[in-house]
């Protein structure tokens, strides 16, 4: 049960990014498929370089945010649809992530040795010290071996759940407080009526940049944390991220209906948890009806299409 909640909360961070781009600023963005991987790649590479997990995660989020800025630049500067612009950037990020890792995948290091060390360097003493009574140096830092610390233990004892829950809670609070500000209110207004924002004398392109950057920052943030949690970064781990996150957002909207608690930021959190539970249930009992784990993304895509179609059909009925 605990691992299911942990993975659902990690997914909710990426879903929050998709919610910001698709719902708050109304700019369809497929970049999270690539920025999610880029975040994981940057984080793991920085861990290999000996940096701490906080710094590595921060830089991973910034790198993903830069990808969102590129999409916003293409969209606003060249007046290209955000969907097409994001497809181009997402495609480029695939190669960029491989460049960053210098391989299709990269494990999270347990120890950053830098190079092969001798027995004396690792242990901190020579074999003669035992005979002559020399003191052993058990400090890894002093012996040149840097231990790479990550926040997750994968022991399902609640330790990881507490850390992930705190991170998600802080993210929700920060986004909610930001959306409550004057600028955040205008950002929400941009998503509903961008022409009205222009009337206020504010360049609407600014909100496109902020919305797409925020959306990809959360995607990269989620990818970095998931890589540390799972123990590796892989260039294919972001495939279908947008569709899965959209399904999570829609599930959250279905649960809350017309209500929008905390400006709807809570939608992706609840939806991601529900999605993870449904995924686990389908994998555990789906074999009885011929379901395979590889079918899950197909069913997720069909679910998103079905919900959108039903909503459009209901709206047309109301109009008639």
Number of strands: 4
Portion of residues within helices: 55-70%
Characterize the main sheet. Answer: 2 strands, antiparallel
Distance between the termini: 46 Å
Query: Taking Cα atoms only, what radius of gyration do you get, to the nearest Å?
Result: 23 Å
> Taking strands numbered 1, 2, ... along the chain, how are they ordered across the largest sheet?
1-4
Contiguous runs where pLDDT drops below 50 for at least 5 residues: 112-123, 130-145
List the helices and strands in order.
Answer: HHHHEEHHEHHHHEHHH
β-strand percent reads under 5%
Shape, principal axes of CA atoms: globular
**Structure classification:** mainly alpha
- How much is the average pLDDT? 85
């Amino acid at each position: 049960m605990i691992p299911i909640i942990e993975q659902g909360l990690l997914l909710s961070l990426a879903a929050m990014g998709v919610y910001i781009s698709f719902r708050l600023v109304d700019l369809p963005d497929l970049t999270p498929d690539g920025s999610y991987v880029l975040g994981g790649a940057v984080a793991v590479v920085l861990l290999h370089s000996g940096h701490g997990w906080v710094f590595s995660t921060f830089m991973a989020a910034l790198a993903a945010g830069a990808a969102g800025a590129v999409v916003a630049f293409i969209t606003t500067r060249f007046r290209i649809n955000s969907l097409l612009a994001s497809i181009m950037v997402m495609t480029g990020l695939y190669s960029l992530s491989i460049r960053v890792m210098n391989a299709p995948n990269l494990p999270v290091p347990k120890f950053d040795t830098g190079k092969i060390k001798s027995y004396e360097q690792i242990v901190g003493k020579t074999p003669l010290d035992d005979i002559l009574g020399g003191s052993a140096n058990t400090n890894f830092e002093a012996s040149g071996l840097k231990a790479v610390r990550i926040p997750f233990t994968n022991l399902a004892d609640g330790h990881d759940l507490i850390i992930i829950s705190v991170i998600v809670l802080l993210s929700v609070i920060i986004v909610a407080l930001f959306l409550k500000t004057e600028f955040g209110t205008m950002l929400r207004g941009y998503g509903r009526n961008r022409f009205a924002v222009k009337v206020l004398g504010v360049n609407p392109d600014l909100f496109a940049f902020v919305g797409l950057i925020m959306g990809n920052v959360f995607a990269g943030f989620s990818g970095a944390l998931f890589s540390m949690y799972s123990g590796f970064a892989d260039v294919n781990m972001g495939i279908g991220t947008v569709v899965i996150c959209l399904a999570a957002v829609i599930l959250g909207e279905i649960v809350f209906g017309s209500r929008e608690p905390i400006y709807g930021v809570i939608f992706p959190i609840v939806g991601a948890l529900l999605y993870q539970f449904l995924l686990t249930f389908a994998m555990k009992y789906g074999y009885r009806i011929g379901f395979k784990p590889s079918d899950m993304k197909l069913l997720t895509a069909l679910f998103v299409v079905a919900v959108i179609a039903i909503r459009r059909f209901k709206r047309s009925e109301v109009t008639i």
